[in-house]
């Protein structure tokens, strides 16, 4: 998790049919809500007028891309902390690799995982091991790898690398895979405002770094666009420099429970594996939650809390990894988008469970406003 349609994106189709009412209203959302409510009852937010226009998909399409043969490639995946099974950022990257294996004939892969608060030497050692063993391309999952990728890529100029959530490394054999997280977070902020009964919502970030601040910024802006009078709680599990905030469900639970005790009845988490604790807090307090990165309603590791997950902000790391592998195999790296945003369906929202079916048209209207440039989403939180 961490941080143009030039390439075809392989993602799950999540479509919304537009049926807009252009007037402001005191009630919105439906009444078919999960535990903790949802749907906007009389006590909910006074909602702003829904913008006109919209339609199209709420996530990616599954149209076939160019056929490639990746059977000769050896792909290395260097996970961030939490690795495969985090139900979030790393799992999304893993899903992209799994799909590449199935679709492109990819046979040999290797996955290695970072430890919390490890040194740059440890990161470089992991990447160097993969390069020395002949893996190319190597995908480093997370901005924390940027410096290490730059150092190792200089030593292995014939090995191709990608860094998820960072595009600062300016080497010919390094590709940055970056996202407009603030845009997807805006949309789930709109959803939170429509589903809150008390017009009071919360955000829980894993670590207070610029990447996660993009999630907070977009969420707050989306909430306020839909319901200007809404109250938004915002808190981080750990400060910058302490990356255990992405892998501490117990602390995630405590932070979320604090926001809920102060009145938040919909909580959005961008906290990696710590999000499991946020979901558990929401379930125990009978309120609603919003996932991140992957469609967390369908994630096995958080399935005990799925009844309170109304949607997830989809950050298509799976698509970026899949498309990067395809581009390497087809020698078409120049075709990759500079940023995976709403325009290329690199960001979206999940509809699994049907809990936001009643407001899909509203979300898609806001989505179209962003795509058309009528709404600009900030990547920096307001006070």
TrEMBL record:
Keywords: Cell membrane, Lipoprotein, Membrane, Signal. It comes from the Bacteria. The keyword Chaperone does not apply. Residues 1-21 form the signal peptide. InterPro entries: BMP_lipoprotein, Peripla_BP_I, PnrA-like. The keyword Lipoprotein applies. It is a lipid-anchor. GO terms for cellular component: plasma membrane. Its main location: membrane. It is found in: Cell membrane. Residues 78-360 form the ABC transporter substrate-binding protein PnrA-like domain. Pfam families: Bmp (PF02608). PANTHER family: ABC TRANSPORTER GUANOSINE-BINDING PROTEIN NUPN, TRANSCRIPTIONAL ACTIVATOR PROTEIN MED. Belongs to the BMP lipoprotein family. This is ABC transporter substrate-binding protein.
